[in-house]
Amino acid sequence: MPAAGRSAPVQERIPAPEMTLMGHLEELRSRLFKIVVAYAVASTAAWFLYEHLLRLLISPLAKLPAADQILRNGQLIYTAPTEAFLVRLKVVAFAGLILALPIILWQLWRFVTPGLHKNEKRYALPFVLVSMVLFALGVSVAFASLPKALEVLAGFAGNELVLLPKAADYLSFVLLLIVAFGVSFEFPIALLGLTIVGVLSSEKLRRFRRAAWVIILVVAAVITPTQDPITLVMMSIPLGLLFEATVVTARLMKK
User: Read out DSSP for 6-35?
Assistant: First the structure.
């Protein structure tokens, strides 16, 4: 027992041993296995939802003025026997990725978490949830801009030409547009993550505001497959507003 009037000695906290290289590789293998399983399950579900997904992806064409000429009884055409199977694989693979996205993001975050400080780890769930919301917002904006973008692009052909898209070509175009919007809407998460770990600050982001808007316009013009002004505006304005929201959020977090 300690002597009267003297406090008991404080035990030193022994830090947890750092994970070895083999431990990191084993952790990575485990996370990748869970991601693959989640993607396989989601893709299986998407296989049975294929008809509904296909109708959703074709729906922007039905809103065009010449929809009766573009679609045959509401259907797209394909010109090769193998094209139908490849189209289904493409739609299922894309939908499986979207459905499995929450688990994929969570597993990636859990792999990164051991290298973060305790106060940084608490942002895990909010980051995953916000990432999902931003991706869904990007997909929604893509669908909202698609009918007008298609109308603008089809208008360049004149009255003597009629758009008759093949299923594979049209779906590749739509899926690429959706991915471009969905991924680009994730950039606030990247900026906020850099502010949390101390690479950026709200002050630096404010000083970077003008350059950021110019970069957003350039990136939107480059990554949008349609290259039309409608899609450019529909992407650049929300991205600019998201940048401003990131600056405000970083300031509220006193970063």
Answer: -PPPPPPPPPPPPPPHHHHHHHHHHHHHHH
